[in-house]
Amino acid sequence: MIDPTPIHVPDDVLTDLRARLALTRWPEDAGNQDWYYGVNRAYLQELVEYWRTGYDWRRAEAAINAYEHYLVDVDGVPVHFMRRPGVGPEGGPAPTPLILTHGWPWTFWHWAKVVDPLADPAAYGGDPADAFDVIVPSLPGFGFSGPLPDHPDLNFWKIADIWHSLMTRTLGHARYAAAGCDVGALVTGQLGHKYADELYGIHIGSGQKLTLFNGDRAWDLSAGRPIPENLPADVHAQVIAVEKRFAVHLAAHVLGPSTLAYGLSDSPAGMLAWILERWVNWSDNHGDVETVFSKDDLLTHAMIFWMTNSIGTSIRTYANNNRYPWRPSHDRQPAIEAPTGITFVGYENPPGVGTGQRVRHFLGTDRAAWYNHVNLTAHDRGGHFIPWETPDEWIDDLRRTFRGRR
């Protein structure tokens, strides 16, 4: 039996934050009205001023604490997780344990829109037989799962071992389901590789190889390859846009995370700028991030990094994914034997590939052979933060993956 640990941030942390925000020293940002050079100063200043004078952390904290929260030690690693108990059919089987894993710059709260419908489908017009007992941990080194002074080497495949211990030893589940996006999809894929016999299956956003971060040039999204010649102009522009969207954070996080962390840990405005650029560029927002994340949403996620001083350890995981390369636990094929569902979204379609061709395109790549895929679905809309941007589609896809497998 473990006791709940509600989230509570001391008042002095909030007072220090407001003081730091008030003392922000702003750089010149001439000629950046179109965000060509990165985050636009005018919008960031507006957001910082609201953070200092209008944003209410205590209201956000109360919403977060509407759920159960726990802080446990798993193999010597501090792990925070949020739980929403499942509500299944009366007299029927117990809801299936489900662990949801976020990515970067996500927090556990990015799952907030899907937790209740997954746990209590009947309350949302669904079938109670689809109920899950939902476990939402913070990745070690992210938010409330820290600090990590004795574990500087954690990466996605080591975290998968911690998750398996959490679900089986700490929580006592003989079998469970797993889902994740971004880096969380790699953690989930590793669970499906190493612990397939103890999983009902996995559901992920996108399908990458577990060797994604292996190699000397893992920080280079293009792997040093030039853009092919004679591409149609629209496809060439899409290639450039995709590389610009992801290249800077990959290179910085893999090659110099500690250097970057000093500035981001000291300046809340600087930290917000760094992660805001990802939320702006990676979400399907049609030029207005607040159609996806309100100011309060943006700042709640930012607060979880700031209050816990975890931005440095969160970005360290990228370097560790490369420094400690993935190695297989077996040589069977597919490498990820657990039944796998994948949700694809339109904003992340590869250059030149429409939603109608997305599944067929994936099946023609070298990534497809890694998975025992049983449910592949592509949607026209939605960006990188799938359960936040398109929660209904994610829920439907996930339920379809596990229906009949429990």
From TrEMBL:
It holds the Pfam family EHN. One of its GO terms (biological process) is epoxide metabolic process. Residues 3-110 form the Epoxide hydrolase N-terminal domain. Belongs to the peptidase S33 family. The lineage of its organism: Bacteria, Bacillati, Actinomycetota, Actinomycetes, Streptosporangiales. It comes from the Bacteria. Keywords: Aromatic hydrocarbons catabolism, Hydrolase. One of its GO terms (molecular function) is epoxide hydrolase activity. The active site is at D182, Y318, H384. SUPFAM superfamilies: alpha/beta-Hydrolases. This is Multidrug MFS transporter. InterPro entries: AB_hydrolase_fold, Epox_hydrolase-like, Epoxide_hydro_N, Epoxide_hydrolase.
